[in-house]
Amino acid sequence: VTMNFLEHQSRARAQSRHMLLLFALAVIAIVAAIDFTVLIALSGGSHGAPPPTGPTVLWTSVIVLATIAVASLFRTASLSSGGAAVARALGATLVSPDTSNPKHRRLRNVIEEMAIASGVPVPQIFVLEQESAINAFAAGFSPSDAAVTVTRGALDMLTRVELQGVIGHEFSHVLNGDMRLNIR
């Protein structure tokens, strides 16, 4: 089976637009659900009370949207320092350049080799020490603030060649800007 890169890229962009639409619909659904809850709460309290008015619904919607916007801005600001912020938020530990741990040293060597081969700065390197599954991810807004994180399971179970394959895959995310979309 041959894969047409441009066709795949077009399909990925369409899926991204679809996800953005679903996100917008989810926000609208949250606002509507909270508005409905407020209307029920205000109209059911006392029998002689007047029903809630349009301004009540409007203000409720504004407050909910403002809360979502502030939370989104706060989260974006907390991740603005790049991929390292994502890795630390997940509990990953930084691999020191002068590490004496043989598995960390192997990981660092593989990542430094990939950085040289791809012509990008060496990203910060993290390990999720408590995770026994095989996994890895790249995060950041650009190659200059990227971080590559691997799990303890990847370090323990993969050969050097297999680790190179995993890290090569993560570098494709760094080079293609995929990680910027993922961090958003």
Question: What can you tell me about this protein's structure?
Answer:
This protein has 184 residues and is of the alpha+beta class. Helices cover 64% and strands 9% of the residues. It is built from 7 helices and 4 strands. It has a 4-stranded mixed β-sheet, sandwiched between helices. Strand 3 and strand 4 form a beta hairpin. The two termini are 32 Å apart. The model has no long low-confidence stretch (mean pLDDT 88).
Derived structural class:
alpha+beta
Could you name the ranges where pLDDT drops below 50 across 5 or more consecutive residues?
none
Number of strands: 4
For the biggest sheet, the summary is: 4 strands, mixed
Shape: elongated
What Rg is obtained from the alpha carbons, in whole angstroms? 23 Å
Number of continuous helical runs: 7
How big a fraction of the residues is strand?
A: 5-15%
Helix content: 55-70%
**Element order, helices and strands?**
HHHEHEEEHHH
Instruction: Tell me the strand order in the biggest sheet.
Output: 1-2-4-3
State the end-to-end CA separation.
32 Å
Mean pLDDT: 88
